[in-house]
Amino acid sequence: MVHTVYIMKYNFAFQIAGFVLVALIVAMFFSKKRWSSLPNTIFKVLLVVTLAELACDIISVVTITDRAHIKPFINDFFSKGYIFLMHAWIVTVLFYVISALLESAWAVKGIDIRKNKKRLFMHFLWIIIPEIVMLGIVIANPVYYAGEGQSIYSYGVPSTCTYIFSSYCVVVALVYFFVNFKIVPVKRKITLMSFTLMEGFVALLQAIFPELLILGFGTAICIFIMYMNMENPDLELIARLKAANDKSDKLLKNILPQKIADSLKDDMTEAGGLSEKVIEEFDDVTVAFIDIVGFTELSNAIGHVKTVDLLNEFFSQIDELLDSYSVEKIKTIGDAYMIAAGVPERYEGHQVEMLNFLFAVQDLTVRFNSAHQTYPDLSIRIGANSGPVVAGVIGEKKFVYDMWGATVNFASRMESNGEPSRIQISTALYAKLLQNPVVAGNYLFQKREGVEIKGCGQCTTYFVTSTQRL
Question: Which domain covers residue 316, as residue numbers?
Answer without folding.
Answer: 277-469
